[in-house]
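Model it.
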Amino acid sequence: MKLMLRIPIRWQLIIMVLIVALPAAGIMIYSGVQQRHHAIRDARADTQMLVDRIASEQRILAATAQQLVVSLSQLPELKNKDAGKIGLLLRNLLKLNPNFNVLFIADRSGVIWASTLKNPYPKPITINDRRYFKNALAAGQLSSGEFQVGRISKKPILDFGYPYKDSRGEIAGIVGVGIPLEHYGVILQKAKLPANADMVLIDYKGLVLYSATDPAGHIGKLSNPVLFKQMVQGPDADTSVAGGIVSGAPQPPRYVSYQKLRLDGERLPYMYIRVGIPVESALAQANEQSVKNMTLFTLVLASALVLAWLVGKRSIADRIVLLEKASQRLARGELLRCEVNGDEITAGVGVKFQQLSALARASGLGGFEWMEGIPGNLGGGLRMNAGAMGVQTFDQVVRLRFCDQDGNIFTRTPAEMEIHYRSVPMLRQNYAVSAVLKGRPASREDIDRLIVASAAKRRESQPVAASAGCIFKNPGPVPAGQLVEELGFKNFAVGHARVSEVHGNFIVNDGGASAGEVLTLIEEIQAAAERERGISLEMEVQIVGVDA
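Modeled.
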């Protein structure tokens, strides 16, 4: 402590600024780490999602292709090798199935005798060297192809073949269907992945069927051998961080997701779907945000240190001046201040409820009518959250100014306080100074009508004799006044203190009643409620002294 007293006030403030800044720096660093973790998680999820989507679409295409070729293989025109009718049918079917780019029929020797593409060559086109042709004849089921360039279309294509039988039930050839691969690039664009994300479709030998980045330089070429080996030896679907080497040059690490696709009955996958996002791209936004945060934090910290050094004394002095002014305002009578600002009234705790109601009426503000006729001031209403006619004081409080037992002034909103029915715990040890109360624009006629209605209701339901108002809080199951009457205490008296015949929750003074008599009557009612109903009646009034 003595050491701190010897340190100049400016250096003390700088030390305080640094101490305060340390947690903020820690939070920012932690936040940056969390952002990186989230970016990594999102990148992995994005690659998995895109792979799943492409795989799902490819499975649907393969299933559609299978349905189509199986249906074609059953046609009698096919079995009878009616090229004219079959050719027309194939062209019509292709129009109905735009996801395919060719339909064709080949005999057992591999010669295509019907196709949706016109043969520009003088000789028939044969496909007996194609993988899907050989496997379809050998396995007798739908078989997949590999990377190839169509002999007529001259475009990369992935074909499927299905055997058909002649009228004798012998395999006579295959029905083929070709699937274009360019449309998967549109899926990648719509996915809105980070820059430099790529998607590659690879056949069973490792040849690139389609590449979203530099198609001309990759399609038909061997894919990254390291990544392809990992996929071949790995599970059917996986996500990992991978690098690899291309043309002898190391590649930057990527978050890579892949999935294998197989046809039923085939051992090898006919397609590998791989999507990769560079680690650097995935973390770019998180890193950029961390840099921005740290830059802003550094600027703020530097500004705070400069201000602490330059205006330390003045800032402290200004705080002292503010405290002096606050005490002076209290001395000048802030407790009795009452002024209107728009639809709000700022009032000190010494202002009576009737004054508030009258000021609100004169200013055209509604919502204060319930205060008319209550013999108390705002301070008491705030202390116990007083209310009437279904309204409580804190229903209208916007802000509360109060001081603690050391004289420090604070401001709170109701949302920052614990408020209960007829109880505000914070004001048991602190002292309300003033409050801002909210009203609503209303005509004087409407206000007068509510005041008259409120007064009439009081006259009908409350005694006019001297009393301290409602004695007990409503216990919940039944209103306190009704409970007192049901217990038989209506008009019951102890000395000159009597339960009102108008309202059971009022104890009136018939003239000369002492506090002791009132308290005795209260105790008898509480005992009866506990004994006969098991209800603990709590007092609403505050007992500050007893004059027997």
